Each structure stands twice: as structure tokens, then as C-alpha cells.
Amino acid sequence: MTSQPIVSFENATPPFWIGIDVGGTSIKLGLVDDQGSTLGFVSIPTEEPKGPADAMQRASSAAKALCVKAGVPLTRIERVGLGTPGSQDIPKGMLIAPPNHPHWHNFPIVRCLEEQIGINVSYANDANAAAFGEFWVGTGRVHSSMILLTLGTGVGGGIIINNHLVVGHNSFGGECGHIVIDPSPDARLCAWGGGRGHLEAYASATAVALRAREQLAAGAVSSLSGEANSVTAKRIYEAAMAGDAWSMKIIEETADYLAVGITTMVHMIDPGLVVLGGAMNFGGANSPVGRHFLDRILQSFRNRSFDYVEHGTTIEFASLGSDAGYLGAAGIARMEYQQKQ
Ligand SMILES: [Zn+2]
User: Fold this and answer.
1) Is residue 204 a part of any domain in this protein?
2) Are residues 220 and 290 in the same domain?
3) Number of structural domains in the chain
4) Are residues 47 and 151 in the same domain?
5) What is the CA radius of gyration of the chain?
6) Ligand 1 midpoint to CA 224 (Å)
7) pLDDT for residue 334 is more than 80
8) Could you list the residue range(s) of the whole structural domain that residue 74 is in?
9) Nearest Cα to 177, choosing from 194, 160, 202?
10) What is the DSSP letter of 102?
11) Which residue, of 17, 155, 253, 321, has the greatest Cβ tally within 10 A?
């Protein structure tokens, strides 16, 4: 499902783009117009073990069916955008070694999709695509620069500077979850690659659960005391909503870790806007716990930054949810099409 309103062909603004967001369990596809409005959306299973060629063939068929259903001739699609997890070689259009896609390693995914669909394809990292989606039509739409952090199983990221998406020399640009926030020799280990002290090892949903389990095992007093082996970030949110003080403390500690990373990134790039996306938002702006989480990040960032920098920096929740990926992939296709004209 998409949360975006569906516009009709008659009310849409040409030219048209298709955005494809490849995840671990599903592939989301959207037919998008030049304003970032969605004319059609479909989600198909990834079926990872069948490999990328099978997935791209099914994605191509699904994209063509979307166009038929929306009444948009395929010839009106100027470009397709594809986002996949890293690692990848963006200029070569290659998947390298995405950890959750073991059957998809070292595969020329862009060439494969182009052959299937017959339209030129732009390629991006999935988190970078999500950042570009928020930048184009979401929380960042009135900004020219921004940083997105996605808080989920891991911590993803994307950086846009003066309307330009940072891809990087090794297709590793914007991997904000892997900046170092703890230099100590016994700092926490990152799940991916075993880097020590990375932001992701403290502030992902996985890391929040791990930190919480350690504290519960050490005797922390909480309504979740019996869940030392099983507690999750979602349970911590639920307990905090019910007034559990220790759970709120875990959320505040998470906010402080994020604020350290955000301060480093803001002092390097000065984007003016930092957007928090991903499933772990502790209820987001509609929840008192989510608002407290965001306030704590802001306060903790202010304690570390300079007056004129903090006054000119907004930290806000993302607004597109899981639609950011396909919208951003379409937006990247649009940007690259315009650059080539
Ligand atoms: Zn890492």
C-alpha cells in the first residue's frame, strides 16, 4: 500500500517516471509524475532466493501493468529509478554484496532491468533514494540541502547538498549510520563489517533492544523486567507510553547518541535540516513519547553546537513513511534525465 493520494492521468503533470524500491521482503513500484504525485503503486514480493534476474523480470512486468492501469503509454515514461541496498557500484550499475540478499551478489542489475523494461535506468542506494524522496516531496521539499537518518534494523542515511545527492567515490556516500561516535577500544560493534563505535551500534532498533536487554539483565527496575531476553524497541515504546520511567530513559539515551552523530554531521555539512525516518520513531510527531524523543535530540544537539548553527538547523521527522524509497528513486531518475538534456 502507498499512503500517497493517487492522481489520474488527466490531472497529472508529464513527463512520467517509475520508481522501484527493492527491500528484503518486498519490491515497491510507483508510477510518478513530474511533481512527485503518484498515479499508481504496487508492491510485489522480493523472493530473494530466486535471484535478481527473476525479480527484475517481475518488476518490469509489474511496472508495465501499472502504466496500463493508469492509462499512461510506456513511451511517456522518460526514465526509471531503481534503489537497492548496498554494497553496490552505482556508476557501473552493479550490486556488490547486499548482506540481506545473499543470492544477489555481483550482479549487473541496471543492465538487467534496462533489457527487461526497455527504458534507461538510474541507480541509487535505497537509503539515498529515501533521502531524495523526502527532499523532493517530503519534509525537505522547501530545502536545498538536508541529511536523512533512517532508524530501523540498522541506521541508514542520505545527504543532499545544494540539490545534489552525495553518492561518494565508493558508492558509500551518506552512510551516516557508520560514523564513529565512540572511539573507546571496547565500543559497541556494528553488525555490518564489525566496525567499532559506529552510530548504528547504539541507535538502531537492534542496538536499542540490545542495550535494553543488558540493562534489564543487570537488574534495571522496569515493567519490562521479565523481558530481559526478548525486549524490542517497540516494547520499550509501549512501556514508555504506559509511563515506565526506565523505558523513557532508554529512549533518551538513544536520543543522546543520535544527537552526538547529528552534531558531527551538521558541523561538517551545515545542511539546515536533519530528517529522521525509518520505523523506529517512538510514535513520531503524533505521540507524546515521539515528541519527547525529538525534543531530547534537539536539546542534546543544542548542548553541543553553536548558537547560530542550532538556530538555523531544523530536526524533524520524515513525512513519507515507506513511500520515500520509490518516490526518491523516481526523483533521482527525473534529476538525471534533466541533467542529460
Ligand atoms: Zn557500522
Assistant:
1) yes
2) yes
3) 2
4) no
5) 20
6) 28
7) yes
8) 9-133+322-340
9) 202
10) G
11) 155
Res 193: pLDDT: 72
Mutual angle of helices 288-302 and 245-269, in 10-degree steps: 50
Report the pLDDT value the prediction gives residue 284, as an integer from 0 to 100: 97
* pTM score of the predicted model: 0.96
The rounded Å distance from CA 214 to ligand 1 centre is 20
Give the separation between CA 338 and CA 334, rounded to whole angstroms: 6
Question: From ligand 1's centre to the CA of 192, what distance in Å?
Answer: 6
How many residues does this entry show for the chain? 341
Distance 63 CA to ligand 1 centre (A): 34
Q: In angstroms, rounded to a whole number, what is the distance separating the alpha carbons of residues 301 and 308? A: 13
Rounded-to-integer distance, Cα 218 and Cα 230, Å:
15
150 shares its domain with 117 = no
Q: How far is the CA of 239 from the centre of ligand 1 (A)?
A: 29
Interval between CA 333 and ligand 1 midpoint (Å): 28
Q: What is the pLDDT of residue 252?
A: 98
Instruction: Tell me, in angstroms, the distance from the centre of ligand 1 to residue 67's CA.
Output: 39
Residue 178 Cα to ligand 1 middle (Å) = 4
Give the Å distance between the CA of 173 and the centre of ligand 1: 13
**Distance, CA 53 to ligand 1 centroid (Å)?**
29
Report the CATH number that the domain containing residue 181 is assigned in CATH.
Answer: 3.30.420.40
Ligand 1 centroid to Cα of residue 79, in Å, is: 33
Query: Is residue 309 in a domain?
Result: yes
How do residues 129-150 score in pLDDT, each as one tens digit?
999 999 999 999 999 999 999 9
- The pLDDT, as a whole number, for residue 194 is 77
Q: How many angstroms is it from 108 CA to the middle of ligand 1?
A: 25
CA of 170 to the centre of ligand 1 (A): 15
In the chain, what is the greatest distance between 2 CA atoms, to the nearest angstrom? Answer: 64
pLDDT score of 314 more than 80: yes
Query: Which band of pLDDT confidence, cut at 50, 70 and 90, is reported for residue 192?
Result: confident
DSSP state of 129: H
- Stretch 36-56: mean pLDDT: 98
